[in-house]
Amino acid sequence: MSGAQKFLIIQFKSLGDCLLLVPSLEALRGHFPQSELHALVSEAAAPLLQHHPGLTKVWSLPRVRGKARIKANWPIIRALRAERFDRSVDFAGNDRGAILSLLSGAATRLGPASPGGFFGRRFCYTQTIAPAPRDRHETLRALHILSAWNVPRPSTVKLSLSTDPSLANLASTLLPKNTILCHSGAALSKKIWPAAHWAGLYHRATAAGWTLVFSSCIAPREVSHFRNLRALLPEAKILPPLKLAEFLAVLKQARGVISNDTGPMHFAAALGVPVIALFGPTSVVRWAPLGERVRILQADNCTCPRTVHDCEKTTPCMASIPPETVFRNITEFFEALGNF
Fold first, then answer.
1. Which residue has the higher pLDDT, 189 or 211?
2. Do domains 6-149 and 165-336 have the same CATH topology?
3. Which candidate among 127, 205, 275, 289 keeps its CA 20 to 30 Å from the CA of 77?
4. How far is CA 213 from the centre of its chain?
5. Which H/E stretch holds residue 230?
6. Do the beta carbons of residue 321 and residue 299 sit within 8 Å?
7. What DSSP letter does each residue of 281-302 carry, written as one string?
8. Which residue has the higher pLDDT, 189 or 45?
């Protein structure tokens, strides 16, 4: 399609949501090949897109929940306005994204017509589109927003992620070759596979001659889980807290990844690393990791409401996935891939 334009792509939600934006970036690039594509994301998420070949520039702002901090961020907002964007598209549709759409000064500002939010949110956009149904994968829901500009959906939707090549040596030092990385935490406690189950899996795997290493859990809701894990597995190696760019390089180095339903699950799949994904209360239809080397195990009869952080059952839903099931699936799956 002819006619060079300058686009600003806005996504201010979780890290996983930022990565799931990649198919939309590539669809925009394919439909407007001569145009500049800029992305505006949270400071924490910037490494996910920093090395994407289709982006002209990645802009970032600190994201503090519940605080807009417009005055503190005004120098960056002013620099964005100086770019004179032809179009902006806000994929999150939340208050922060809507306000940044308006402040960017883009001539055409597209966003989802999401319910709720502050009264003036709908006036921040010049164009809105009704969100796609919730029974679609999040990548397809993002691509649906672009249909307002007649951007065609790609025949194959896949994720890709590029890491910082300068961190490869550090990753090799932190994670020895042929190591399985276990990401046992999650921002919501109802998504966390119990520490006792992780310990049961660890003992089975190490007895079989595998090397398992755990990534750190640093979010407030993960502290209790991490304390229990250390108590149960004092002998296990646990990586120190890493910056996101460093963590991505470590993931790429892994022989395989076992993860709860959280951002690193998507990161590993996008890097082409074999992934065993443990799902509980969230929809596999909407949030499944995309990739050919993925196997999903889901808790039975999980009824946790979407809005609560903790499982309301006496025995957490995630506990219905036994360690022996995960161990068996690792063996079958990784052997089928030729990893053992």
1. 211
2. yes
3. 127
4. 21
5. helix 223-232
6. yes
7. SS-HHHHPPPSSSEEEEE-TT-
8. 45
Contacts of residue 9, Cβ cutoff 8 Å, sequence gap at least 6: 21, 24, 25, 28, 37, 38, 39, 40, 88, 89, 91
Please provide the CATH number assigned to the domain covering 6-149. Answer: 3.40.50.2000
Half-sphere exposure of 42 (CA within 13 A, CB side): 18
Question: CATH second-level architecture of 165-336?
Answer: 3-Layer(aba) Sandwich (3.40)
User: Which token pair is 11?
Assistant: 């996504």
Burial 256-282 (b: 16+ CB within 10 A, else e): bbbbbbbbbbbbbbbbebbbbbbbbbb
The secondary structure of residue 317, as a DSSP letter, is: G
Please state the φ and ψ torsions of residue 301, each to the nearest 5 degrees.
55, 40
- Supply the pTM of this predicted model: 0.91
Is 90 exceeded by the pLDDT of residue 266?
yes
- Helix 323-336 and helix 195-207, axial crossing angle in degrees, nearest 10: 50
Of the chain, the percentage scoring pLDDT greater than 90 comes to 74
pLDDT (0 to 100) of residue 217: 75
Reading the block at residue 269, the tokens are 């799949």
Q: 9: part of which helix (H) or strand (E)? A: strand 6-11
Give first-to-last CA distance, the chain, whole Å: 47
Q: How far apart are CA 12 and CA 311, in angstroms?
A: 26
Structure token pair of residue 85: 């964007």
Query: pLDDT of 202-260, one tens digit each?
Result: 999 999 999 999 998 777 778 888 899 999 999 999 999 999 999 999 999 999 999 99
Rounded (10°) angle between helices 244-253 and 263-270? 50
Domain ranges of the chain: 6-149, 165-336
Which structure tokens are listed for 145?
Answer: 């927003």
pLDDT (mean) for 274-286: 93
Whether the per-residue pLDDT at 1 is higher than 50: the answer is: no
